[in-house]
Write a structure and sequence with these properties.
DUF427, 51% strand, DUF427_sf, globular, Metal Binding Protein, Guanine Nucleotide Exchange Factor, Chain A, DUF427 domain-containing protein, mainly beta, 0% helix
């Protein structure tokens, strides 16, 4: 666990909290949330988008479906990360935007 993870992390889409956790990982400036941190996992809709990180491996993406609004490819995760990134397996990170905000308190 990242030493910074003693703090509470939250993801909001608009005014809706979609995930929060006291256990998370920080990698390359991004907060990765464990799957158990989602209040309603059905908001995560698998996308066909993938990207490759040279050291983490193949990332898969989620669209976020919150209160009838879809935010395309707003989150990503590593279902089979490289050994160097094994601590974030299936953890979810988010692109912060005008609608999606990640905070740590």
């Amino acid at each position: 666990m990242d030493p910074n993870s003693a703090h509470h992390a939250t993801v909001k889409v608009g005014d809706t909290i979609i995930a929060e956790s006291d256990t998370w990982e920080k990698v390359e400036g991004n907060i990765y949330f464990p799957p158990s941190s989602f209040k309603d996992p059905s908001i995560l809709v698998k996308s066909d988008t993938t990207t490759r990180c040279p050291w983490k491996g193949l990332a898969s993406y989620y669209d976020l479906n919150v209160e009838g609004q879809t935010y395309r490819d707003s989150a990503w995760y590593y279902p089979e990360p490289s050994p160097a990134a094994s601590k974030i397996k299936d953890y979810v990170a988010f692109y912060q935007s005008g609608h999606v905000k990640v905070s740590v308190s």
